[in-house]
Amino acid sequence: MVNNLSKAVEKKTATGSPLIDIEDLKVYYNTVNGVSQAVDGVNLNIKRGEILGIAGESGCGKSTLTTALLRLTRPPAYIAGGKITFYPEDDNPIDLLDLDGPQLRSVRWRHLSYLPQGSMNSLNPVMRIKDQFIDVMLEHSEITRFEAEKTIPELLRRVGLEPYVAKMYPHELSGGMKQRVILAMAIALNSDLVVADEPTTALDVHIQRVIIQMLADLRDSLGMTVILVTHDMAVHAELADRVAVMYAGTIVEVGDVRQIFKAPKHPYTQALIGSIPRIGGDRVRLGGIAGNTPSPRNWPSGCRFHPRCPHAMPVCSQEVPELLVSDEQTAGTQQQPLAACHLYTQPGSGGNHHEQRQ
Amino acid sequence: MRRFLLALGGLWNASRKVQAGVLILAFFILVAILHQPLSALIGHGRDPLALSEAAAWQMPNGEHWLGTDRYGRDILAMTVTGLTASLEVGAIAGLLSTIFGVIVAFVGGYKGGRLDSILSGTTDVFLVVPSFPLLITLSAYTSRVSLFSVAVILAIFSWPFAARTTRSQVLSLRSRPYVELAKVTKLNDFEIIFQELLPNLLPFIGVGFASASLGSIFALVGLEVIGLGPSGILDLGQMLNWSQGWGALSLGAWPIFVAPVFVLAMLFFSVNLINIGLEEVYNPRLRKTAGA
Amino acid sequence: MNSVNDMNSMIELNDVTQVFHGAATRSTGGEFKAVDNVSFSLTAEPPQILSLVGQSGSGKSTIARIILGLQKPTSGSVTYRGKDIYKLSGKEYDTYRRDVQPVFQDPYGIFNPFYRVDRVFWTAIKKFKLASSREKGLALIEEALHAVDLRPEDVLNRYPHQLSGGQRQRVMLARVYLLHPKFIIADEPISMLDAAVRVLFLNILLDFKQKYGMTTLFITHDLSTSYYVGGEIMVISRGKIVERGRVDDVLVHPSHPYTQMLLASVPIPDPDARWHEKVMIPGEEEEPVVVEQPDLEVPGSI
C-alpha cells in the first residue's frame, strides 16, 4: 500500500496527458430486422486525472460505448471498426481492441476497472470479499498473500466500511456497499481508469452522495481518471470536469462542464439542459424535446437530430455535421467547446471553426 | 387470429430445428389420420391385418415391406394402425389432463388463499402418489377396456404436472401491472382469467399439452411392455409386447420390434426438436442473432 | 355529514396501517410494517397536486395500492365521501372506480402484450359505458389522444412493444382523460422515462389539474419533480409520514432531519453549486441484508 500511495502522488503530475484515444469507433448489433448501428463513429479523448462524463438518454449508445471500451462486447454485438488506444504511464501505447485473453487480464484492474450499477455484480458471488481482494492483488502486483491481507482493513476503512465486511459474501452486502468494495479494489491497485456506469442508479439517495463524493476523491487525492456514464445531468454537474453528450450513436457535443450547463451549443444539449427540473426559484414550465428517439437500425439522414431540432435547416438532412472546435472561449473555462451542428459549420456563423480533435 | 398465424409463421422461419421437428410430427399425424386408406393400400385390397392370410414370419420383401408377424399380418400395416391408436390415446389423455390441470391451476393460482391451499394440496397428493404401481393395479381390472377409458385413466395421473407448472405461471402473471389495471377497470375475476391471463399462457399450455400427450403414450407403452394394459387395442406398445412374447428377436424377426421402437423414438425426437428450437428462439443467449 | 354531497368528494386515509407477514420478513421478526399509521386526505375541490415523496421501500407504493382498493389495510380505513371503500354499495363502488384512476410506474408492464394498445381504451369505454356506439367511442379516444399530444395514427393500431416508454405513459394518461376521474393516483409515473419525456408528462399532469380539475396524488422519489409540479408534499420514511406542508416550504426550509437529509443528497444540476462538505451518513440507513450486524459506517474517514 505504501508503494501505491507514493505512486499516486507521482501520478498527479501526469495529469492532463492523454490516457485513452477513441478513434472512429463503431459497434453494431446483428438483429433479426437488420443491423443496429448502436455506436456509429465516435471520437473521444480522455485525459489523465479528469472525470469525463458521458451523457445521453436511453438508446444513444453510451452503454454500448463503455462496454466496448472495457472489451465486454458480446455477440450479437460486434466491433465494426475504429481504434481505442490506451497510453499507460511507463509503457508503450496499447491498442485495446487488439488484446487477447491473457493481455486483457493484465490490463484489467491494473489499468482499467469497472464500477457497474449498484444492483449488478462484478464480484464473484461464491468468494468472500477478502478472498476477492487477495485474488486481484496477487494477480496484479508483486506482494505476498500475507501483505495483501494486511492492507484490506485499511482499504475498507477508506471507503467507509468496517473491517469485518471482508469476511462477508457479496449477497450479504447492499448495493452501495458493493460499489464501495469495488472502488476499494480500484484504489488498491491504483487503476489508471475507473469506468462508472450509472453509479447512482438503484442506490438509496443518501448513499448516492457518498458514492459521488468517493468518485471525486479518486480524482482529487489519487489522480485517477474516471469515465462517468449516466443520463442524470445533475450527477454530471456535481462530478464531471468535461461532458460528452451522445445522441443517436455519435457524440454531438463535448465541453467543459460549466460550458455545457451554462452555454450549450448543440440544440440537443440545449433541450436536454432545458428539461432539468430544479428545486428552488421560480416555477417555470420546461420544454422537453419534441418527437421520438430514432431507431438505431434506421438513423435519420444527415444530422440525426434534424427531425426534432427547432433550428433545422435544409442542409441538416443532407450532410452529417462534424464535431468541430470553436475558437470562442466561454468565460471561465480552459476548454474549447466542440459541437457537431450545422449552425456552426456554415461560413460566417460566428467564430472561426476548424477541425481539431481536442 | 391473423396475428397468431403470423407468429406461428415467424417461429417456423426462425429455427431449422422447429421446422424439422414439425415436419416429422406432421408426417406421423398425417399417417395416423389416413391410416384406413393406407391400410387398404398396403393390403392391396385385402385386410392386411386378417389372421393367417399371408405366410408368417416373413422378412421385409416386395409384398410386405416390413415383413409379417406370427399370424401373417403385415407389420407395416400394424405399425400404421398402432401409431394411430397410440396417438389417439396420447391426444385424449393429453387433452383431458391439460384441461383439468389448467382449470385447477387458474382457479387456485389466481384466487389464492384457502382455495389455493386446498387445490394445491390435492395436486401435490396426486403428484406424490406413485403412479406406475397404481396404473398397474388399475390395469389388472381393465383388461377389456376401450381406448377412451385407458386415456382417462392415464389422464388421472398426468393432470397434476400441468396444474403445478401452470399455477406457477399464473402466480407470476397475476401481480403484473396490467392485471391491476384490469381490476381498477372493474373487470371481474373470470374476465381477468380469460381475457388477461389465458392468452399469454397459451404457448405454455400448448407445450404442456404436448408433453402430457407424449408422456401418456410412453406410460401406456410401459404398461404394455410388461404385459399389462388393455389387450384389445393394437397400438405400438402392444407390438412390443408381442415381439417379446413370441420371441421374435431370437427368431431373427426384427421388424416387429424395430418398427414400433423407431416410430416412438421419432415421435419423442420430433417433439424435443420443437422444444429445443422454441427455446433457442425465445432465449436470446442461445442464439447468435438478437431478436426483434 | 356531507357524504352524498358531490361538492366535497374527498378521499381520506385514517390511521392506515399495513403489516406484511411471510418468509421474506424473517429477519425482522416475521412481520414488516410497510405503512405505519398514515392519515391524510385528498380533496377534489379545489383540484390539487399532492406529492408523496420517499425512497424505495418507504411504503408509498403500498399506500397507492391501498387507496386503489388493491390491498386491504391491516388496520385503519380509507373513506370516500365519508364511507369506507370496503363497505360501499354496488353503485357507490362503481362511482369510486370511475372517480379514482391510476397511472403506474412501469410502462412495459402496464399493457397486456397480447393485445393492441387501443384495447385499454375500449375496455374502459365498455366497462364504464362511456359511449353508445363505436363511432362515438372512437371520437372519445381521439379526443383523449389529442389531449396528451399523441396522434391517433401513431398509436391506435400498434402493439405495446412498438411504442416508446414515453408514448406508453402518455397513452395511460389519455386513458385517464377518457375516464375523467376526480382523482389520479400516479405511482412513480416517470421514473422509468428519459429526462426530456418526464417533463412532457409532468406538463400534462399540470394541464389536467388546471384545465380539467383533476387532483393528483403524485408519488415519487425525485424531489425536484415534486418541486416542479408544486402544491403540497408529504415526506414518508419507513411507512411514517415525517413531514408535510407546501412544497415551497418543505423543500426550501425542511424541518425534519430526514427531509433535510434527502435534500442534502440530491445532486444540484449546477456546476457552480457543488457540494463542498463531505458528508458521511451516520448509521441507520445503510443496513446490510443481515440485520443483526451493527452499522458499518465509520465517521469522518473520507
Care to describe what's here?
The complex is a heterotrimer of chains A (358), B (292) and C (302). Chain A is an alpha/beta fold. Chain A folds into two domains: 2-240, P-loop containing nucleotide triphosphate hydrolases (Rossmann fold); 247-275 and 287-354, no CATH class. Chain A has eleven helices and 13 strands. In chain A, the strands form two sheets. A nine-stranded mixed beta sheet of chain A has the order 6-7-8-3-9-10-12-11-13, with helices on both faces. A four-stranded antiparallel beta sheet of chain A has the order 2-1-4-5. In chain A, helix 5 packs across helix 6. The longest helix of chain A is centred in the middle third of the chain and has 18 residues, at 205-222. Chain A is globular. Chain B has 292 residues and is mainly α. Chain B has a single domain (30-48, 62-284), classed as Orthogonal Bundle (MetI-like fold), CATH 1.10.3720. Chain B is built from twelve helices and no strands. In chain B, helix 7 (147-174) crosses helix 9. Chain C has a single domain (6-265, 274-285), classed as Rossmann fold (3-Layer(aba) Sandwich). Chain C is built from ten helices and ten strands. Chain C has helices at 60-67, 90-99, 119-127, 134-147, 152-155, 165-179, 195-212, 223-229, 247-250, 257-265, and strands at 10-21, 31-43, 49-53, 75-80, 83-84, 100-103, 183-187, 215-220, 232-237, 240-246. In chain C, helix 3 runs parallel beside helix 6 (165-179), helix 4 (134-147) packs across helix 6 and helix 6 runs parallel beside helix 7 (195-212). The chains are: A alpha/beta (358), B mainly alpha (292), C alpha/beta (302). Chains A and C meet through helix 7, helix 8 and helix 9 of A and helix 6, helix 7, helix 8 and helix 10 of C.
Instruction: Give me the secondary-structure category of chain C.
Output: alpha/beta
Mean of all residue-level pLDDT scores of chain B: 82
List SSEs of chain C in N-to-C order: EEEHEEHEHHHHEHEHEEHH
Q: What is the tally of helical segments of chain C?
A: 10
In terms of DSSP E residues, the strand content of chain B is: under 5%
The count of DSSP E runs of length 2 or more, i.e. the number of strands of chain B, is 0
- CATH topology type of chain C: Rossmann fold
Q: State mean pLDDT of chain C (0 to 100 scale).
A: 85
- The amount of helix of chain C comes to 25-40%
Low-confidence stretches of chain C: 1-5, 281-302
Shape of chain B: elongated
Work out the count of structural domains of chain B. Answer: 1
Which percent range fits the helix content of chain B?
over 70%
Major β-sheet annotation of chain B: none
Query: Radius of gyration of chain C, Cα only, in angstroms?
Result: 21 Å
The name of the CATH topology of chain B is MetI-like fold
CATH homology superfamily name of chain C: P-loop containing nucleotide triphosphate hydrolases
